[in-house]
Amino acid sequence: MAERSGRCLCGAVSYHFTGEPIAARVCWCKDCQHIASNGTVNAVVDTDSLTINGELSEFISVAESGNQIRRRFCPTCGSHLFANSSARPQYTVVRIGTLDDPSSISPTMNIWTKSAPAWACFDENLPLIEGQAPPPKVVEK
């Protein structure tokens, strides 16, 4: 079974998860643009497969969908690491750029492209979804 690890910029927070992501996407929503000044590249993983070491700070807001989004980040360096939606607490979004090997997961689509700036660069091989993608289809274990 695949295992991946990552950390924040200063190393105060580290994590690992097992298994393959349920989805991997580039998100262009306004919130992600505020976090990264660009789109964010995210892997959706089973929350139960994720182990986090270190203290996190969090910020909770309401998304355009009406769901509460809990974003967690390192209180020392500010690296944004994780997000959870009240609609799907069984999944955690992991920012792929924080992985020790970010090339180990490739995004499969761009979402919220209607919010992307005119200068956004899209991979021509990935589908463009104007809003939120439908929930990933998960095969029961």
Automatic annotation (TrEMBL):
Keywords: Lyase, Metal-binding, Zinc. Belongs to the Gfa family. It comes from Cellvibrio mixtus. This is Aldehyde-activating protein. The keyword Cytoplasm does not apply. Residues 4-113 form the CENP-V/GFA domain. One of its GO terms (molecular function) is carbon-sulfur lyase activity. InterPro entries: CENP-V/GFA (IPR006913), Mss4-like_sf (IPR011057). The keyword Metal-binding applies. Pfam families: GFA.
